[in-house]
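TA notes, week 10

Several of you asked for a full example with nothing omitted. So below is the full record: structure tokens for the whole chain, then the designed sequence directly under it. When grading your own attempts, check the secondary structure regions first.
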């Protein structure tokens, strides 16, 4: 992926809406997709593994409370930027509250934690790739294994649908329908990532 041409992705509004309205599956998907990214940001700010896990949990508690007020339609608003602001603030809160055994941050990490920038401490392209990979994992978990196999073999591996149909003992049209359904779900979740 050419890092120079990557645009800021947006989180699919339906995912945010589902999480915002208390949909457990939507919330779990949001945490599964963005949790590892928040953890990586906090670690890049120099926090130890256990501290990063705690800050990540505190971040998502704050997100759960503030999500109803987050406005994706606001000019320049991105979920990733908003999430980084919350994570950075939770890391700072943790540092202030932990005076007895403060988080030890090296010089570069301290600079990231103290920055007022809305940009997280990672490459945008890396975050986009991570989000897309996690969305695929979540989608795979919620898809019938045989359906996923038909999709993966034809759409990703480029196998002939007739060959896959023969191997799986289904009709060729079943393979086409399975691939189309998975692609439709995938597009729905990723449609706003690259405007």
């Amino acid at each position: 992926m050419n890092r120079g041409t990557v645009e800021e992705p947006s989180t699919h509004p339906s995912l945010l809406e589902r999480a915002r309205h208390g949909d457990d599956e939507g919330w779990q998907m949001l945490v599964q997709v963005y949790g590892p990214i928040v953890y990586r940001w906090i670690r890049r700010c120099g926090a130890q593994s256990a501290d990063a896990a705690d800050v990540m949990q505190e971040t998502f508690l704050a997100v759960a409370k503030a999500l109803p007020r987050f406005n994706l339609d606001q000019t320049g608003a991105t979920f990733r930027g908003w999430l980084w602001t919350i994570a950075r603030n939770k890391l700072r809160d943790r540092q202030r509250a932990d005076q007895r055994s403060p988080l030890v941050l090296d010089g570069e990490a301290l600079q990231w934690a103290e920055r007022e920038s809305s940009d997280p401490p990672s490459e945008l392209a890396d975050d986009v790739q991570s989000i897309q990979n996690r969305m695929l994992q979540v989608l795979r978990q919620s898809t019938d294994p045989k359906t996923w196999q038909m999709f993966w073999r034809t759409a990703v591996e480029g196998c002939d649908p007739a060959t896959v149909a023969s191997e799986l003992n289904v009709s060729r049209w079943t393979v086409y329908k399975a691939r189309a359904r998975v692609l439709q779900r995938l597009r729905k979740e990723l449609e706003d990532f690259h405007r």
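Residues 8-138 form a domain with the Rna Polymerase Sigma Factor; Chain: A fold (CATH 1.10.1740.10). Use that as a sanity check on your answer.
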